[in-house]
User: Fold this.
Amino acid sequence: MGREQQDLRNAIAGLLGDNRFQGACAKRDMGALFRLLNHRGLSTRRIAAAVGITQGRLYDYMNDKSRVEKLAIFEQISDALFIPGQMLGLARRSWEPQAVESTHVPAAATADRSDLTAIDAFRSADKQTGGGRLYAAVVRHLNEEVARHLVDATSGPQVFAAAAALSEMAGWMAHDSGRDGRAQQHFVRALALARTSGDVSLAANIAASSSHLALQTGDASQATHWARAGLQFADQGPRISSLTARLHSMHARALAAADQRFRASRELDRAHEALGSTPETTHPWLSPFDEASLASESALACRDMERYEEALVHAQRAVALRESVRARSLALSHINLVTIHVHRADLDAVVHFGVGLLTANPSLGSVRVVNQLADLRCTLEGHRNYRPVRDFLAQFDASAKTRILLLADILTPRSEGTSP
Assistant:
């Protein structure tokens, strides 16, 4: 491969995860695509020569004076610029790695050991420290180690699966850092990469993450959409009981948030049935979804359905099952438990469990935990006439100051949470 061809491949590799690039491909807007390449330092002469058109024609495309319409030219652009065919609505190009069959998971089974090691290392650190301080490291790993393999003709589909799994992880860490707009961008990219790899189980897992994010931003309709999409993906692949349970639990939460209680109850039952069944297979790219995870999601769904006693049972189970090494999950489970006691109007229980919550890992790098604690404090403000609650709020404020000082390097105003 010549130097110019390699430069083109490198330029495209750096753009594959860019939402503007993905949008231009999805719309087949070649003018916007050429402008992005030009902004990346590729001259119009080189772009025109690579694609096989005149510079005058290229300028017409870039200035929106004309659009590419012919299939043959789209194919020419895809092959010249090493853009995966699926991104332009084309068949797989001859230079692309062979996609896997959707009914199997060889991409995961044959995944590069270094990618799996990186995923495991990031995941382990995230459980303890939170995503706030790991986000930049994951993005750097994606850009420096993973992206360059995406346009390597010798790479198999597992490279796209690795990129998808790491992009999803970056999305969760962005969410944990309070950057929900950026998290959504990562999830969109991750889903596109998973579909390119042919790994429908991974695509289903990413859809579940998108459903969770939609719930966090208050969009029950989108949460329902993504949960259903995930279940459709899951039906196309091998049965993974933990994945099926996760998707049904997200669907239940979305329906509960939309006040569709009967359907939410049915989905929650399906989630418990799925997790209680014998697991048929496992998947190395998927983060674990276990009994504690299901208990936590069940507590939230029952809370939204105003079934507070049932929610309390699930919340207590979630706290009991959470391992101390999963610091963020344990903190979130404790917050859920205290919040449910608020709904039950059991203020003594709120104070009792709340005091323990204040001492939980104050340096945990999770803006999500900080924001949920702030929401809990706002809720308790309405009960400050009760002396024990008023005393607790004083302790709460002192603890919050310490936490904010320890997390000053990652905290941003909550209004920035939805910015891209």
Remarks:
- The chain has 21 helices and no strands.
- Residues 3-88 form one domain.
